[in-house]
User: Fold this.
Amino acid sequence: MNATPAGSEQGERAELDEQGEFGELAMLLPAGPVEQVLPPGRRSHHKDVLMQLIDRDSRDDAEGARPLPRPRRLSRPARSALLAGAVAVALAAGFTVGIGAGRHGGGADARAGAPGTPSAGSRSAVVTLDRMAAVAMNTDVQPVREDQFVYVRSRVAENVGEWGKPVKLGPLHERQVWFSQQQGPVVDVGLIREDGQDWPIEVGVPDGTNPRDSAVPAGVQRPTYAWLASLPIEPGHLLKRLYAETPVEKGDDRDQEVFNRIGDLIREQIMPSATAAAFFKATARIPGVTEVDDAVDAVGRHGIAIAREDARHGTRTEWIFDARTLDYLGERTVFSRDTERARAGTVSDSAAVLERAVVDKRGLEPGERRRAGRS
Assistant:
């Protein structure tokens, strides 16, 4: 544990008083690039939301409407604790399925319903998700051992526009991730390889804290194959548990957060067939879930999408699947209405999953394993 001298602490407080509220925010940022264990796949969204709040409060302060609120210290389980520049989010693979299915209409026939009721999603989405569940149940999945890693290779493009400014989709680039399957509490969660560099995926450990006290066990914040296998497979029970365990920031849409969490779990890990089927059936019970006729992943592959709109932020999250085979292709976020930052239809982030496998070591690629076996 690292102790902080009293004189140093007083100096930091004095400097913070001089810098104001943004000084404290800066102090929350880690010294070097790390990957926050809090669930991947949502960096762009939460960065944008954070900066919109800062911009709004700054304007209010300048106009004398109200003082800028003191930034709240972000707890480890908070889903939106993703400060821009402090993390490199690991966008990973989805569940792959492979049985034929036809296209269906868009979301115009969406029907409102309480969470957990079979009629909550649109009729077309419910039909398609039911077919996905049937495919999942007929897919053989090799269990992943606790000493192994789930490997994902994807192509991603993210918003690189300035905070609070119009959205600008950055260049397409490759990302590889390795997720630990350890069940017990860990700090070292895995590895991300991006832009020619390797970055650790780690739990944030505050200065002066014993890493063992910050370690995170397998769970909704750090999914593993074994944890996923332990979940209930009855869709209603599964959805009830997800609603209970998914963190939701004040003012956010709980239904949207659960939809996003299921998307993260489907995309990031390998899971038993029955669990995958349960996730698809549970998704059909979330109010506002619809189907989009045509969506395009990061590498240009067209497909149908299971989607839900976040009305508060004017964006729509789309899980993209091949229209014929229902193979998972990727995910994207699209502006669903005109805003100050983008017109309706603007893509703010996009991903395409290209490869997913199980490897025995962190940093080991599937091809390296095969080559090693032949030598």
